[in-house]
Amino acid sequence: MSKKITIAIDAMGGDLGVNITIPGAALALKEHSDIHFLIFGDEARIRPILSRYPDLRDSSEVIHTDKFISNTEKPSVALRKGRGSSMRLAINSVSEGRADCVVSAGNTGALMAMAKMVLKCLPDVRRPAIASVMPTKDGRVVMLDLGANLSCDSEVLIQFALLGAVYSKVVSGKKKPTVGLLNVGTEDVKGHEELRSAAAVLERVNFAGHYHGFVEGSDIPMGKTDVVVTDGFTGNIALKMAEGVAKLSGMYIKDAFKSSPLAMIGGLLAAPALKKMKAKVDPRMYNGGMFLGLDGVCVKSHGGTDEVGFANAVMVAYDLIDNKFNDQVAAELENLMSQESFFTSDMIEED
Amino acid sequence: MSKKITIAIDAMGGDLGVNITIPGAALALKEHSDIHFLIFGDEARIRPILSRYPDLRDSSEVIHTDKFISNTEKPSVALRKGRGSSMRLAINSVSEGRADCVVSAGNTGALMAMAKMVLKCLPDVRRPAIASVMPTKDGRVVMLDLGANLSCDSEVLIQFALLGAVYSKVVSGKKKPTVGLLNVGTEDVKGHEELRSAAAVLERVNFAGHYHGFVEGSDIPMGKTDVVVTDGFTGNIALKMAEGVAKLSGMYIKDAFKSSPLAMIGGLLAAPALKKMKAKVDPRMYNGGMFLGLDGVCVKSHGGTDEVGFANAVMVAYDLIDNKFNDQVAAELENLMSQESFFTSDMIEED
User: Fold this and answer.
1) Are A202 and A251 in the same domain?
2) Taking burial as the number of CB atoms within 10 A of a residue's CB, which of A254, A283, B6, B240 is the most buried?
3) What's chain A look like in SS3?
């Protein structure tokens, strides 16, 4: 067996807390037997569930706290009052070198605020981003930022292009993922000044990805590029819009199959095929919002997910550590900054 | 028969030009026999098609021009060089009082630039918006702005809330449509400063709609509010993302039905029900991007639509004229501005 990877789990996070985090960790352990878990949370609630998973129990350590961050807590309050919480202690374990990474299904805003404060950004990274993976026509797309930064100047967008490209390399195995900047049209003259400045730089530098150009909203699900970069306001809204439309499509189909006896029989016959299709877009498989750019790996699992989704988030964290994601980012960033062309007058104006 | 409504048609606009605009106008005439059409474009191409629709021929006048604006023309170039084009002449006919409104399936950017220059905004309207109607879980939602303004200050957003509410009243018949401001979360503290300022004003004024609060991307297809207001950058991307995801869902379903003989039989049995569902979300029924806030009604039909979609755009224009949309907007705006509370220090700071 190779060296152990230690993953800190905020056991209390998410809508179902220990009921999904513990079984989820057990599932991930089945895939990767070299994980050691630090489980932070209420021992009295963790132990009964943990006892059902002897392998996990033997590969983990429980660190008790009866404090936790609720889903409705404001980030600023969580920062001030959440010092002893399971979320905060789990993050601390990464900054203290006791864990390689942290996974939480808790309050996104609180997690980002705490992770930013405790772990800090990687050297020369201006802002962390939240990235996620979505299904497309023929594969998957990495999209960022999904809400960590409401607005982004061109330098931040360029850094996000780099972060997204390295992340895409890890999750897709592609050598040179294509990167698009999200805009209202594909012509050079379109969009905000910061987008056009970022595009001008990305066109001439060498970095982990291949810069494709501007992409539009409809290009994301069609998989035009491997990575799509945008500000956190637009990214958050576009992602949630996509989730809403996908949900609505599912509702329409269900209604259609219920609308007549013939349709019901048709639905029964097609059920296995439709189930397979549904598995392809199963949100649990795309679960794991990555916080990119932090000096420590932090993965956010959907709050409403089940153990399969949480296990997937744990495995994303595993892959990032296993692939030395942050070392790759640091090397790529140094490479980018060594290219004189990167710092131009329009960049300086931005700041 | 009531008084005639005169509608100017840019016959050359759209991917298929006269092949959809003339049959589309004929279809609309079947619904509303009191329309008189002014048809602008190449007479040699219009006449042969027009001759197939005797009713339309008798209810229309052809104004010849051999100039037209291509889909790839930049708005600035269209403004400078498009003086004699079918699009421009059709818009002119509205400003000259010869037509009540104009409908074009041509280049959106050029149409907006020309309409803005020729028709101007309604008194006290700061910016025009592009609005569209989308299917939701149980009905339809009006969304604006979809690309006319990349960024919007709070006063512009407030005006868009009013424009959207009046538009929703006309298309849905609701007395007091609910209005949401698109944001990354529903709490008061979320989002850009201009959003929070707009929300603070909308909460205390009386206007055509009922202000609901902030809405998120996923709330749009779920139909949480009748109207969703956002800036043109976010709106454009969210709309196109929705179109892309809807298209992708359709592809997945088709693939599922092709994946096994049993699924194919199931698909055949369910076909009528699925067709009915598809009709419910038929983009042609939601065709007609409205330019709201201009001193003259201008409707943009999708460039790639067919005659049914174009006819629908014509009928949207008809409804707006028939309901005296712009008079309603002017009255509502006066009412809004008469409320002292509307002008507050935070509004003045914005400008």
Assistant:
1) yes
2) B240
3) CCCCEEEEEECCCCCCCHHHHHHHHHHHHHHCCCEEEEEEECHHHHHHHHCCCHHHHHCEEEEECCCCCCCCCCHHHHHHHCCCCHHHHHHHHHHCCCCCEEEECCCHHHHHHHHHHHHCECCCCCCCEEEEEEECCCCEEEEECCCCCCCCCHHHHHHHHHHHHHHHHHHHCCCCCEEEEECCCCCCCCCCHHHHHHHHHHHHCCCCCEEEEEECHHHCCCCCCCEEECCHHHHHHHHHHHHHHHHHHHHHHHHHHHCCHHHHHHHHHHHHHHHHHHHHCCHHHHCCEEEECECCEEEECCCCCCHHHHHHHHHHHHHHHHCCHHHHHHHHHHHHHHCHHHCCHHHHHHC
Does A260 sit within 8 Å of B273, measured CB to CB? Answer: yes
- Show residues of chain A in contact with B267, CB under 8 Å: 266, 270
Regarding whether A66 and A20 lie in a shared domain, the answer is: yes
> Which range, of A220-234, B137-151, B334-348, averages the lowest pLDDT?
B334-348
Across the interface, of B216, B244, B251, the residue whose CB is closest to A217 is: B244
Give the count of domains, chain B.
Answer: 2
Same domain, A329 and A181: yes
The shortest CB-CB distance from B244 to any of A221, A239, A271 is to A221
Residue A257: which domain range?
A: 131-283+324-351
Q: Do A273 and B257 touch (CB under 8 A)?
A: yes
The answer to whether residue B312 sits within a structural domain is no
Render pLDDT for A160-191 as a digit per residue (tens, 0 to 9). Answer: 999 999 999 988 889 999 999 999 987 777 78
pLDDT at B55: 95
**Same-domain pairing of A167 and A261:** yes
User: Of A119, A146, A174, which residue is a domain's last?
Assistant: A119
- pLDDT tens-digit series, residues A236-274: 999 999 988 888 888 888 888 888 888 888 888 888 888
Comparing alpha-carbon positions, the chain B residue that sits nearest to A191 is B150
B292 is a domain residue: no
Same domain, A58 and A169: no
Given A87, A119, A151, the domain boundary residue is: A119
